[in-house]
Amino acid sequence: xxxxxNPANSMEKIISLCKRRGFVFQGSEIYGGLAGTYDYGPYxxxxxxxxxxxxxxxxxxxxxxxxxxxSAIFTHPKVWEASGHVGxxxxxxxxxxxxxxxxxxDHLIEDVGxxxxxxxxxxxxxxxxxxxxxxxKCVKCGKKNFTEVRYINLLVKSNLGNFASDWAKEPTYxxxxxxxxxxxNFKNVLDSSRVKxxxxxxxxxxxxxxxxxxxxxxxxxxxxTQMEMQMFVKPEDEMTTYxxxxxxxxxxxxxxGFKEENLKWHxxxxxxxxxxxxxxxxxxxxFGFKELEGIHARGDYDLSQHQKFSxxxxxxxxxxxxxxxxPHVVETSVGLDRSFLAVVTEFYDEDELGGETRTVLRFPRxxxxxxxxxxxxxxxxxxxxxxxxxxxTMLSSQMRAEFDDxxxxxxxxxxxxxxxxxxxxxIDFETLExxxxxxxxxxxxxxxxxxxxxxxxxxxxxxxx
Length: 465
Ligand code: ATP
What we know:
By secondary structure, the chain is α+β, with helices and mostly antiparallel strands. The chain has helices at about 10-20, 40-60, 75-80, 85-90, 105-110, 120-130, 180-185, 185-190, 240-255, 300-310, 335-345, 380-395, 410-420, 430, 460-465, and strands at about 25, 40, 65-70, 90-95, 100-105, 150-155, 155-160, 170-175, 200-210, 225-235, 265, 275-285, 290-295, 315, 325, 330-335, 350-355, 355-360, 370-375, 400-405, 425, 440-445, 450-455. The chain is built from 15 helices and 23 strands. About 35% of the residues are buried. The model is unreliable at about 1-5 (pLDDT under 50). Adenosine-5'-triphosphate (ATP) binds near residues 177, 224, 226 and 293.
């Protein structure tokens, strides 16, 4: 089954499963929550780590000329002036005059079938909003009585190292995107490692945005994690590099097991002045096709701006041609949290097995939070429990494993199906004696099929499953 069109994987079901099974919790839940923040629970952190690892493997380990970085969240305030974020990183806000609900004006306009985006001037977007005012409804109360559209800057301010009472006048910003740390370290990486243009720097880390309307679960957060890679290239190679990365990033999702019909390209209609091209990969979330990843050809804007604002030379001297130039940038940028939601949506399924309806997350093994669960058939038979503990210890030194002796076997299988564990190993009486001594039952998550496998072959069997 596993169809996105399947009403089974509606948002409510996904949210409920993620909470019930310890994937995602509302941030600060016991205090009533903090909008735009979520916490990843015991299985969520495993899944998130696996998504990061798969991305890192594909972007860094699998590439000869890409290196990693972990830059600070706080940066010099001038960074965000240079990048254009202090002046221009803003979203259009409208407020419902009836119930005070705030919304993104461009999203409300898009919802009635017209075009708008955050790159429009305040006059332009107000004009479009006014043209459609009679159709645009408040998402909460349904009324059509809105304020004018105004822009709100998304940078989150802090008083880091500033003890004055009016610190907000000279704030230090929490980074609004991870890639600025990459531009700041372009020269450091060049001078300290053996890379030569073309080369890339990849980073996974937190970013912070004062999103106007952080709705749609972990899709739009105020505290988010990004996985970004900037490729520094010769100016004339920018567009060929761009096309190469567009193909690679599309293939990445197919290799993960995503269905192609659940992915879609979206070209930006309104490019910022320095950009050569900007396409998003959209995913069919339960609430429709929305941006998952952005792939952009950014010219020399980023390094040139930092060169101008810092006064430091960020040009590159080609060791072969002796040519000096400011490298151009091709960027790929994806949110970890949106990837997480896409992965859970893609692999969520409901089917019937052994006459019972079950929920199953059909994660590929690389992504599964738990790779194998180990069960003694009966909890009250010490010889079964001891053997199961032995097998668990052996397996857990090789892979993330879980031990479970609670309830009947059927219930234990259902629980593991719901968290996406590809295999369950049961130690039964046949494991202890006779011809079948030292063999165990391995049950496959997707088919429910069971096979007897010798303990000595278990690790390699599970690695291939
Ligand atoms: P959107 O148009 O949806 O606001 P964006 O174009 O501002 O996204 P970018 O600035 O290009 O997004 O950020 C790159 C990626 O970071 C996005 O493709 C998305 O996966 C992720 N991302 C951006 N903003 C958020 C957010 N508020 N919450 C979760 N992920 C986000």
